[in-house]
């Protein structure tokens, strides 16, 4: 998983994060179309993903993310590998590796967001009375969103309360998100300290 993290964070793929969404907004403004931000709020996604991992798995994930983010030139990707990482097969490989390494994260990071995006597309069409809705989603979510839309033709299976903490009030959700982010910050600091301590120990050997 580290090679994927390093590649995307270092910009080696030559792709600007969020560029497709900026282009979509510009295109919508050109034709006077309404823009709807249809993804689930990131604080909910992070909170649910973090809660799905036990402490030991959180520390392991933080270590892998740090190693990926601190990748050196020795980990530089070849042009051939960069091209492979841009393909659909590479995206599938990433999610396959995620499923194997952190199966707890697949539901909150992938499956639930696929459902949420599909729900947003259907809701946008119903609320705005639009004849056509154009959805722009990340490549990793494309198959899941299309599958959900085709499977749920009637719309009865997409329930908003299943995709967020529907039983909580907005204030309660904000409190939970804040607490989750605080825990994340503390545990990331702890993981980073442990990782750099280990590096220093290895250098002394």
From TrEMBL:
Q: Which Pfam families match?
A: TraB_PrgY_gumN
Superkingdom assignment: Eukaryota
Residues crossing the lipid bilayer are: 180-201
Q: Which UniProt keywords apply?
A: Membrane, Transmembrane, Transmembrane helix
Q: Does the keyword Nuclease apply?
A: no
Q: What is this protein called?
A: TraB family protein
Upper classification of the source organism reads: Eukaryota, Viridiplantae, Chlorophyta, core chlorophytes, Chlorophyceae
């Amino acid at each position: 998983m580290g090679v994927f993290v390093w590649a995307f964070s270092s910009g080696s793929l030559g792709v600007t994060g969020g560029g497709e969404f900026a282009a979509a907004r510009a295109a919508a403004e050109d034709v006077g179309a309404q823009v709807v931000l249809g993804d689930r709020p990131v604080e909910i996604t992070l909170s649910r993903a973090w809660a799905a991992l036990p402490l030991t798995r959180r520390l392991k994930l933080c270590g892998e993310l740090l190693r990926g983010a601190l990748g050196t030139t020795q980990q530089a990707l070849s042009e051939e590998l960069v091209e492979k990482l841009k393909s659909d097969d590479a995206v599938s490989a990433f999610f396959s590796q995620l499923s194997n390494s952190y199966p707890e994260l697949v539901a909150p990071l992938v499956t639930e967001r696929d459902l949420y995006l599909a729900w947003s597309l259907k809701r946008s069409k119903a609320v705005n009375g639009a004849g056509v809705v154009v959805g722009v989603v990340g490549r990793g979510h494309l198959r899941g969103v299309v599958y959900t839309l085709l499977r749920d033709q009637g719309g009865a299976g997409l329930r908003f309360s299943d995709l967020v903490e529907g039983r909580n009030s907005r204030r309660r959700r904000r409190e939970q998100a804040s607490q989750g982010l605080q825990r994340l910050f503390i545990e990331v600091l702890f993981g980073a300290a442990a990782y750099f301590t280990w590096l220093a120990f290895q250098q002394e050997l």
